[in-house]
Design brief:
Blueprint: H1 2-32, H2 37-57, H3 62-87, H4 91-112, H5 122-127, H6 147-150, H7 155-173, H8 175-183, H9 185-190, H10 195-234, H11 240-268, H12 277-295, H13 297-307
Helix pairs in contact: 1-7, 1-10, 1-11, 2-3, 2-4, 2-10, 3-4, 3-10, 7-10, 10-11, 10-12, 11-12
Keywords: Cell membrane, Membrane, Transmembrane, Transmembrane helix, Transport
InterPro entries: ABC_BtuC-like, ABC_TroCD
Family: Belongs to the ABC-3 integral membrane protein family.
Amino acid sequence: MGSDFVQLSLTPLLTGCLAAIACALPGNFLILRRQALAGDAISHVVLPGIILAFLVTGSLETGAMLAGAAAAALVAVVLIELIRRIGRIEPGAAMGVVFTGLFAAGVLLLEQSNTAGVHLDVEHALYGNLESLIWLSAQDWSSLLDPAALADLPPELLRMAATAAVIVLLTILFWRPLKLSTFDEGYAAAIGLPVTAISLGLVMTAALAAVAAFDAVGSIIVIAMFICPPATARLMTDSLARQVGWSVVFAASAATIGYLLAGYGPGLLGSDHAVSAAGMIATVAGLQLAAACCLAPRRRRIGAAREG
């Protein structure tokens, strides 16, 4: 049992946890800035950029993927501004048109291009590739100390570990500027902080998390983890530091519980079939948020204040 878990489940479980944490950290600040749907927007925009980057370079390296995603984001900004000015409609409507249009274009490119052989297709883009991230060289838990076995770890795990480490480091280094510009942008600008650059850096950090996670976990987890763990944590406390800590706990627990339920839950119910790990992880994250909406301490305080 232990050897099977290490070989078949350990690496996808760790990859899911790292992807969830990498998305949840910038998601905290997006939630507080009332830009929660920016994560959804990023996941829609990066799809055509990633596909075009692969078609141009023939590579699935993170650098090429991030460049494609950044180019797609730039095109999206230009299109939003053009539609807003020419059509004279509100920015929210222009964003909706551009994001859904780009995502549809990305799905069309996936269907029409020859990318299925490199695991870049609609199924992997939406649901991810967690179940296939097996560690064939692992024999048991002792393989964690075996350099030869470690050299054969799935590259998605290493990529997500590096991405999560970078995002954690950036969050620590820019904690004060992020905190000030999030809660009082006017004061932050008055003391000389580059609030526009900070906002752009936050969006680019979110894009980095989305691009790194896209191939391994798919857009479903990316969208859910940008919003659900930070929103759940927000209902637990008024402290930003504790909120970020809670969001990491909720992200990791949703990934762990969701993956285990997807793989082993149906068997416990007598079924021979597993369910999508990405879908179950997103479902658990949504259930956490629903429970927090009903039971969280901050939610009860808000309700008591309104009744009074």
